[in-house]
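Fold this complex.
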Amino acid sequence: MMKFRFRRQGNDPQREKIKQELFAFNKTVEHGFPNQPSALAYDPKLQLMAIGTKSGAIKVYGAPGVEFTGLHKDTATVTQIHFLYGQGRILSLLDDNSLHLWEINLKDGYSHLEEIHSYTLPGRPGIESTSATRVTVLLLKLSCELLCVGTEGGGVHFLELPGLTLLDKSLLQEEVLQSVPEDYKHGKSLGPVESLQEHPRLQDKILIGYSRGLVLLWDMDTRHADNVFLGKQLESLVWERSASTFVSSHSDGGYMVWPVSSDAPCTTQPATATIPYGPFPCKAVNKILWRTTESGAPLVLFSGGMPRASYGDRHCLTILQDSTHVTLDFTSRVIDFFTIHCIDPQKEFDDPTAVVVLLEEELVVIDLLTPGWPTVPSPYLAPLHSSAITCSCHTSNVPTRLWERIVSAGLQQQGQQQTHVSWPICGGKSLAPEPKQKELLLTGHEDGTVRFWDASGVSLRPLYKLSTANVFQTDCEHNDSLTQAGEEEWPPFRKVGCFDPYSDDPRLGIQKICLCKYSGKLVVAGTAGQVMVMNLSEEKSEHMVDVATVDLLQDREGFTWKGHDRLPPKTGPVVFAPGYQPTVLAQCMPPAAVTAVTLHAEWNLIAFGTSHGFGLFDYHRRSPVLARCTLHPNDSLAMEGPLSRVKSLKKSLRQSFRRIRKSRVSGKKRMVVNSPASKVQEANAHLAEQDDIAPVQRRIEPRSADDSLSGVVRCLCFADTYLRDGTHHGPTMWAGTNSGSVYAYALEVPPQERFSEQSVEALLGKEIQLMHRAPVVSIAVLDGRGNPLPEPYEVSRDLAKAPDMQGSHSVLIASEEQFKVFMLPKVSAKTKFKLTAHEGCRVRKVALANFGSTASDDYAENGLVCLTNLGDIHVFSVPALRPQVRYDCIRKEDISGIASCVFTKTGQGFYLISPSEYERFSLSARVITEPLCQVEVDRPHDSATLSDPTTAPPHANGTHKKTTGELKSLAEAEVDELQHALHSTALDSPNSSADLTLDTTGELTVEDVKDFLVTVDEAENNRRNITEEDGRPPGILIN
Amino acid sequence: MSRNHRTPLKNTDNLVEVKSKFEAEYRRFALKRSNGGFEEFYKLLQTVHRIPGVDLLLGYADVHGDLLPINNDDNFHKAVTSANPLLRIIITRRDEDEPIVFATNSLQRNKKKVLPGLRPAPQKSSKQQLTIGMPRDFRQISSIIDVDILPETHRRVRLHKHGTNKPLGFYIRDGVSVRVTPQGVEKLPGVFISRLVRGGLAESTGLLAVNDEILEVNGINVAGKSLDQVTDMMVANSHNLIVTVKPANQRNNVVHRGSKASLAGGGGGARSADSGGSTVSQDSAPSPTSQTVSQYSNSNSVAEGDSDDDGDLIIESDSLPVYTPHRSLLPNGNSGSHDNGDNGNNGPATLPRTHRPIPQSVSLPSNSSLSDSKASLSSLTTPTHNGSRSPSKTSSSQESMREDGNFITL
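Structure:
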């Protein structure tokens, strides 16, 4: 009874089938560096590395493309991870004191990570605090059949593996104390177990280190301490390979080497004791590794130990060998590290090849074989957020030539610091088919850099880094890294890693990026209104960057910009390294952040917009073509710049305080009220709550023209289409604003050979005011068949089929509230979909994508992909604008995730799940980039408790190969699609229109379309015709 | 109000370019802004078009593209002053079968359905006997619709934003809705009207009140939607907002009244300025029309900020939808001939036709003169102030109005 408007018809089964073949939602892979890593482990047999995070995730990495992810049921911090060497099993310890066993199992031909067991150590009866059984350290015996668990109470428990059953031979402190000399006891506890290490030669002996400094060599068979070592406050222990000595590290910043001999059961003095950064007080050495080398002196690696006063705040790892001493100085905390070394027990030496350091924000691998210990570039786990990501841009199907040039520029860039030894962690093998096309992901960063990533496959690989800071004079110059190395002799710091969250100048931040993949031209626009046109060059160059200022305010009176200044460009010539080099700098005035940018390399034009207006710039002649102010006279906020929105900040602060208070109040309520004081308290709380109860209200008012920031230019687009009349097409430029205005300009672009002498002209063609005044998110022109127009150069280089210029073009305007298709050149509304009115959600991101069918290689459809403020993704048919599918993708609270989302042209997308990680998802049933890999595991035999049959086949057989044809290249897909479009009208066929009986044409709201191109007489005629002959023109308002 | 009470305005010597259309003929001429009043203009047009003696209806296109009537001095002056620079006049014969429709967006909007799913108004023509002003000379700003298909505890209100610069003027909030289910009382989150802005559209209709629960927005159930979602939906639909509410005050919802029912059956939307508040006639056999809705009408506004469910309604006489055309100028031969199922179902006028020589003429359904009209209205309607209209008027209006559904207020 209440539903009266939109009734779903019975879905057409045929169409449903086609939809299933076109669309499928999958979150496929996480790119980048895990947020807040907390644990690290390595399996030298399988050559796999595992990282645990604070959110309870386990990520396993091997060779590039080999990745597994597992998520604990509870989002507790993973405090430790251990591999059962060679078995493809992982043991994890969580913050909540639970142990979990994971297995890499084969399913459908691909390996997956699954949790198979969990275990929590029981609290000992009679001990009040459970902290006594809190696990501090784990030791997995090399045989992988026994797990030793050290606890805070000082006990060591033994669990059988892989069943995780507690064996009845726990070793408690009381037993240990019997073998300790009387004078050491003093009735004091030994403290928590700080370290457990297995004897490298004798399986049944373990080294147990207690926090207070006692170290035992314990024989598990005889339950007897072979040796006792009395040291200082202990941090960690490590055996020397020969087992004749072990090394302990201590909280005073020193380490000691202890000889182990059966002659002296009790040792009180170490062989050597060193405090490397003494004599002043130092911080603890958290972990130490001692690796023997064939060449001579052992390699000592330890973290921490820095002099407390002068360098206590540094995050360092020291590598010592003989006289060579390097202090690696990281920008974030060292979580853990391990060496990759020889594990063959027959060999005499460790001979480490590399050290892998997990930091809070990145992973660094140091090549220990090459003199100078350079870093090894990582093929995955790229620190995306080395400076905060401010924008991103995806380019699919990058031509090989441009790809190679970018790669070579990147190689030259990193040439000095990095070695090119192969990546040492290379377990498993990737079965994913070689990506058919190259995909480039560009990220803009707060520090003014643009990073180029290879997004073709599962691992996001850095290719090249472009810095724009050197074009400008900024407050701090980049010369500190060189001078610093010279002036400080001790400790011998070396800056390592690229995580550098501190931006010199916030104005350098990149706001928008646009790349023409055929010409290689790149436009980068930033926070201070700077728009740079870049060219890719193989040569180093020293040149002046041409600067042109574009006044977007035009002649508007009464506005004063109170925001930041423009970035002053450097006056003299600047040296630019090979790679992208700026040629022209167009500076918007006032220097507000650029909000939209686009490029048409064939016409030599760029367009850019800010909160004040938009400009069109001819970068060939280096001259502005057009500047147009979009400010509303009442808009004062636009003039204040980004930093002065004090009021709203205050308001939001107040609100959040209120929220906090409220939650506290409700928390108190649950307490048992027994004292009068708390009664009063509660009464007050009650009052306070009532005070707060003034509920959230929302004003219902249509958007008005003078809403603040109404002039912000939201999107820009170039198109070769019909704007003047239905017979002559030509270059056009479209701009959409925050208040629902669309401006369309007809451009007069001279032929290529006359670019130099003849200037580009722009003529305002149409002004459309969307009735609902919602911000215009995107504009795209569709050709006669309803397909998006190809990119510049695509047609002239025969890379795409020419658009249909016969049928009438249309323009798709997506606002935050609705999508509309208008016919060109009249701008009469054709179809629309009112998303907000129907769904109560608002458009955040839209893109046109081509969806290939899994059933047929030559069937594809265009779709309008839309991400809403609720985090769900809708796909609409184009140009019919019929809803096809809807998926929940991002939590609606995850505002930064929604804001960071970027779509590809093949129906995939990326969004940030943390500052450092992109989640990749796929909406297409055909184009999916996911890790498909296999790890050969060697499990002796699965115990009875593990009756999982899938663990059995250790060998990868080739039958599971996914047909490589499944990943179709974009080029192919596009051609197919075009071919298809020639003989099919599927988009408008009843098949596609059967899903919803929405009345899309009956109720077109009236838009205000001003026509400027028609001559006055003509306009008058039209007007007459329209108003007087039929009285009601379709959707055109007459002035 | 005497003829020249309102003398226009600046630029007295300015000329207005007039372009008038009668049937297929156009005339262009210049008119002095200061020149005369409506009757002179009417005669002038008859002369210019050489149609003396033909009864005419005059309309002009205002800046919004709306076709508005000219039938007295005031709206004539309004038309002249708003000419910018061209004043487009459209003349129709008064006795034409299908009169032109003066309404919001009447110039652009075709006869289109109200909403696809909403009940279409039937194309019933009914003879109008009584000479009551032309309801379609008003802009419709709100209506109650779909009475026949809604439960009587609910009310579906349509607010038209077009053509007014009044704010919609209400706020919504989260709240708890109590539903009685077979299992017992169930509490559900709901969205409620939290505040009405004084002088806003929502308040002036008298159809929405604080604490009314919002159930649907333009046909879409809001259950399970967040406050922000509902806000977005309402803003997106703000130009033609249809909200289905469960009024907090259920007292004046539905009263079965035999007399009303018969009236409703006729398909005519009678509306009365009924003191009893709204009366929905619930016919056993619902006619396809939107059935009669009698609401306490014309801006019985709930006292502002008042969360009182009691329905003690204070009728404020501001913005009364009164329109009294000069009878001499508008012989009402055919005025209400029939409704064409058009957009607004232009509701019946609110007031019964009063005697012709009205001391003050109130008109101009455009915004600018609203305050004026308010002032004059209050004096006009003094007898009805703060309470119901006199019964005689009510009944007369009921009898006379044979319109489809819905009523309008200014």
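DSSP finds seven helices and 16 strands in chain B.
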